[in-house]
Amino acid sequence: MLKTALQIVPRVPGGIDGVGDYALTLAAKLRDKFQCATVFATPDASRATNVRGFDVRPFDTVRDEVRQFDHILLHYVNYGYQKRGIPFGLLSILHRLRRQSRCKLVTVFHELYASGPPWRSEFWLQPLQVYLAKSIARLSDECIVSSENFLRELQRLVPNAPAHLHPVPSGLEEPSLSAGQIADRDPHRWVIVGGTVLAQRSVRSFCVPDSTNLLIWLVRLFSSPRC
Description:
alpha/beta, about 230 residues, 9 helices, Rossmann fold
């Protein structure tokens, strides 16, 4: 039986923020379909608040109360937690959470590391960003990425990483279709929200199963004992 999940996010969800939309959509579906409550923790919050029926707490307060949660879901966006993309403080906190709690840690990698020309900081800081991504992947029980490129790169960095490819849950909701309706759908009718690059990536990923599989996979993972 799922109980309460702690989702760690870089900013208070509910604004113009793709990561926050992802986290809120996932929390709502876990609650509605599997009766799993969610509490959000973020370093961006100065006080406790509520967003769309979910508690949002400052990270500093939640990290001392981790035993009250049954599962931890980290949304990793390195620039979201530190302006230069090197959140060493987050890594030390995750080590502390693992020592304090036996609950599973699942990391959603929205970013791995950045690259740029020599006159930009990401060129010089990339080795540190790679180190942090590898460390968090090794610390996690499971890792989720949303693109085949991210999956290949994470497996290159950490060959034994328990990495899984799952599409991003739709913020526009998803149609309730049977397997037959999906198989017989008109392949010429698509709705893609975003720019050209997003459209190209989306078309290439159409062979990936719908994001309902992400929910089912998380429920099975959280319900199984941690070794």
